[in-house]
Write a structure and sequence with these properties.
alpha/beta; Rossmann fold; Dihydrodipicolinate Reductase, domain 2; six-stranded parallel β-sheet; 9 helices; binds NADP nicotinamide-adenine-dinucleotide phosphate
Length: 328
């Protein structure tokens, strides 16, 4: 049993937009949000005042030096994830770092080494993985409900209309695949349950050469195929479909599931709906870091899983650039 009576004390690096989804979970259920840091002390102080966070720091280093902080949440631009996760680990903090955890396999290996050396938990903030709908979808995929698994189809798109966003900047790991495509790729791998073999892909590139839309085909062992789409240039849409020889599963909110979420099961007999109850989105990943830290067990999203995912994403980008099939 995880100790939830002793507060687990968190700090946040950066006043990011996504923080609005995390400040609640980081201060609930036995967690304490003790500090926030920003590159600007004034911004950190204002944010701390508004959110009721006791401590504000004008640099990330100062927050990491606070001995009363157990863990940090890192919502920085993509290209800064590895650097700050390593610094946090060196300071003895457990780490919940936003997706994508790294922009190349070597970065994930660096994190694996840092986690081992400093005996801390480092895990990628794929909040959807903590909802039991994922385990239920995997169960229905492999228990014969839809026959033999043939493929997975998934999409995550939204219209990105913020000029200057780091998501459009190659220096920061921009592109729709890194930002939202990482979700359907992760979901497909989680459902199939093994590392992909190879990929093919095509993309629409921005003038700065980040992908604005990406279509990928991922080949898994046993002739299982995933088709994945990500985009910054079409309206918001998320969906995962799992296709078998006897039917299919449809999940309409795979990446931001509601506490009560559904899977539609379509077979020759008709359509039924399976309802799955889960924790509030984002609470699961926050609780998992504490449980992994206090119980000395791996987090749900291990860095081995992240490594498969990141290497698949790297291969997709390479395939989209050169038009060839690329091994993962
Ligand atoms: N899991 C989810 O549901 C979800 C949703 C959205 C985003 N995300 C992820 O969360 C991360 C942050 O996304 P976001 O849209 O919230 O980011 P954002 O609003 O652009 O904020 C990023 C923060 O990083 C800090 N930063 C440090 N160096 C920076 C630099 N050179 N340029 C810009 N910012 C810098 C800034 O904080 P200070 O200036 O205060 O230091 C900034 O506020 C990304 O990895 C993204 O993929 C996850």
């Amino acid at each position: 049993m995880t100790d939830t009576a002793t507060p687990f004390r968190w700090g946040i690096l950066g006043v990011a937009r996504i923080n609005r989804s995390l400040v609640g979970p980081l201060a609930s259920n036995g967690h304490q949000l003790l500090a926030v840091a920003s590159r600007s002390l004034a911004r950190a102080k204002t944010y701390a005042d508004v959110q009721g966070i006791p401590r504000a720091y004008g640099s990330y280093e100062e927050l990491l030096a606070d001995p009363e902080i157990d863990a940090v949440y890192i919502p920085l631009p993509h290209s800064l994830h590895v650097e700050w996760a390593v610094k946090a680990a060196e300071a003895g903090k457990h780490v919940l770092v936003e997706k994508p955890v790294a922009l190349e396999g070597a970065g994930v290996r660096t994190l694996q080494s840092a986690a081992r050396t400093h005996d801390v938990v480092i895990t990628e903030a794929f909040m959807y993985r903590h909802h039991p709908i994922v385990a239920k979808a995997r169960e229905l995929t492999h228990d014969g409900t839809i026959g033999r698994l043939q493929g997975v189809r998934g999409t995550f798109s939204f219209a990105l209309d913020r000029p200057g966003d780091t998501r459009l900047d190659p220096e920061y790991g921009g592109g729709s695949l890194w930002d939202v495509g990482c979700y359907p790729v992760s979901f497909a791998r989680t459902i199939v349950g093994v590392r992909p073999v190879s990929v093919q892909a095509a993309a629409n590139w921005s003038p700065a050469k980040v992908d604005l839309s990406c279509f990928a085909q991922i080949l898994f062992p046993d002739d299982v195929v995933a088709h994945v789409h990500s985009s910054f240039e079409s309206p918001f849409k998320t969906e995962m479909e799992i296709i078998g020889s006897e039917g299919r599963l449809l999940i309409r909110r795979p990446f931001k599931p509601e506490t009560s979420e559904t899977i539609e099961v379509m077979t020759a007999k008709g359509t039924t709906t399976v309802t799955v109850e889960g924790p509030a989105l984002y609470q699961g990943e926050v609780d998992d870091v504490r449980a992994a830290a206090r119980e000395g067990r791996p987090p749900l999203v291990t860095l081995d899983e992240s490594l498969d995912n990141i290497e698949t994403l790297v291969a997709i980008l390479k395939a989209a650039r050169n038009g060839n099939t690329v091994d993962v």
